[in-house]
Every structure is written in structure tokens, then in C-alpha cells.
């Protein structure tokens, strides 16, 4: 209990340095006066008079501002001590006033090293002057003791200043690192949101386009081919289920609950799933073919997903804008890159094909997203009309890319 109370008192004093330093000055003044009283009794001299008390107060009380104005306090104490030594008043018990020791410590602790060294030299000179004054009884031993006392105080103060500077540097670095972590976390969140937005755009645009095509063809098929109409509705249901699965996978990343069970991880689609994607487009009534040239090689996960999404978006554009015309998907594995070409025989590019880069209301977000995916891994993508008609999307993805 006593230890806790003592810690509370120490914490209270540290939180109020001005009060603590004022109490220190008063304490040293009282100690100095008591020492003078006992010294006068031992030497059969009169007790310290009002002038001696005034000088003692002038020497010690300025310590209340030793942290805020260390240089001014040091000069004030030095001047008061020099004036006291020039009088015929009894000598102080110590060759150097205790307040002077605290003042030297303070100036070394709270001022720069250059300033504190200059003050230290001036203080040493003043000690020599005070020692040789005829009004004092100081000798070489007193001078040596005072110099050692002040030198030790300066060394302790300078060490405290160095520790405080290092601590401040460490705290500043810790704050900087914390801000950097926050910035990196925010940047990662922004990048993840952009990635999820691209994924959602690709998933929704593709699957909804497939469902719209099937839904539009269903009533027509029902008049002539009931089984075909039923297959169309089955395809719509299957497409919707696939869209829900992918959307749940993406939206699970945005969940804020941390105490619930983790969502089941679903593999990201890649080039291996392109045959199924082309078959899905074919079931929607678009004559689509897939041709793979070269020996397939394992791809980085990001490159694999980007290749799939680029083909998916290109097929989605063909479904929405080209009509029921042949679409050819061609993949060619080279030694250093994967080339993707998606070409349809539909209408030439126009605002409805999303051929612009402005991402305006007429389209363009899909092509911008495809270009971003290619550029993310050091590749490139071009899209535009063919001279003989139709629309072609061509992409190049480096096989050894580790960017992103």
C-alpha cells in the first residue's frame, strides 16, 4: 500500500515539473539556511541576518524555472553566488552552492551541448574568481572539490539529454512506422476493393448476359421445341447458381464479423476453366470455339485469373453486342508469354461495344478493366474493329511475371 502511494506521489510530481522544481528550490534554501545556522554556532558567529537569508533565497528559488529557462536560471544563480562571495557574509558550507550544481545539471540536460559546454567553461572561470576573492576563505582544495562537483553534474545532465533525445527519436520512429502501417493497410484495402469491384463486374456482366440471352430465346424455343426451352431455363438456373457462388466468394472478403466460421475457400477460375466458359456461351446460343496452341504451362495465380477474366469479358461483350455470330477464342503459349485473341464476326466497334477508354455510360468499363488486368502483370491489351468486319480483343501476358 505504501509503495502504491509513493508511486502515486512520484507520478503527481512528474506531471507538474514546475511545482516539483519550486519545492526543490525551497528545500535547498532551507537546507542552506540550516547549515549556516549550525556553522555560525560552531564558529561562535552571529546567526545569519536578513541579507544572508535574501542571498540564499536568490541563489535557490530560481530553480523553479530550471527546465523552462535553464540558461537564465544558471546565470541568475551564478550572479547571486558571486555577489554573496563578494560580501563579508559567512561562507556557505559547500564551496559551490548546491543550487549551482543543479543549475549546471539542468543546462546540460535541457540545452544543446555547445551551449552547455560554454556555460561550463564560464562557470569554471567564475569558480576560480570566487576562490581567489579576498573576502572568501576558499583554497585550492575547495576549488578542486567544486570543479569535480560541477563536472559530475554536467556529465550526468548531458547523459540524461542524450537518453532523452534517443527516446524521442525512437518514439518518433515508432509513430512514423505506425502511420506507415496504417497507410499501407489503407492502400491494401483500396487495392482489394478495386480488385473485388473488377471481379464483381466481370462475374455479374458475364452471367447476367448469359441469363438474358437464354431468357430471350426461351419463349421463341417454347413455340417449336419444348425440350430446347426447358434446356434454356436449366441453363439460366445453372448460370444463376454459378454467379451466386462467385459473388458469395467475393463478398465474403468484405465480411466484418471475425467471430464467425471462416467461409469455405473456392478456387479462383483460370485457363483450365475456359472450356467450360466457352461451352456456357455456346449453350446461350452463340457459336463459340476454343483453340489452344502450344504446350500449356503452369501460370502464376494472378496471371491465370487475369487470362480467364479477359476471355470472359471479351465473350460477354460479344454476347451483348455482336449477335449470334461465330466467336473464336485462341490461346497461344509462347516461350515467354501467353497470347489471347477473342474475335467475333459481329458489328464493327461503336459506342455500344465499349470500345472507348472513357468508361462513360455507353460502355468502356469492361475494356478498361481488361487493360488494367493485363498491365498489372506487365502485359498489354488492344481491342478494336477488324478491317474486314468484326471485333477483336488481343492480350499478351508474360508467363514469368511476378508483378502485382
TrEMBL record:
MF GO annotations: ATP binding; phosphorelay sensor kinase activity; protein dimerization activity
Listed GO CC annotations: membrane
Biased composition (Gly residues): 357-366
InterPro entries: DUF7134, HATPase_C_sf, HATPase_dom, Sensor_HK_TwoCompSys, Sig_transdc_His_kin_sub3_dim/P
Region called Disordered, residue ranges: 342-366
Its EC number(s): 2.7.13.3
Keyword list, A-Z: ATP-binding, Kinase, Membrane, Nucleotide-binding, Phosphoprotein, Transferase, Transmembrane, Transmembrane helix, Two-component regulatory system
Domain Histidine kinase/HSP90-like ATPase: 302-401
CDD domains the UniProt entry points to: HATPase_UhpB-NarQ-NarX-like (cd16917)
Residues passing through the membrane, by range: 18-38, 44-61, 68-86, 92-110, 117-134, 140-157
SMART domains named in the record: HATPase_c
Main enzyme class: transferase
Pfam families: DUF7134, HATPase_c, HisKA_3
The protein, known as: histidine kinase
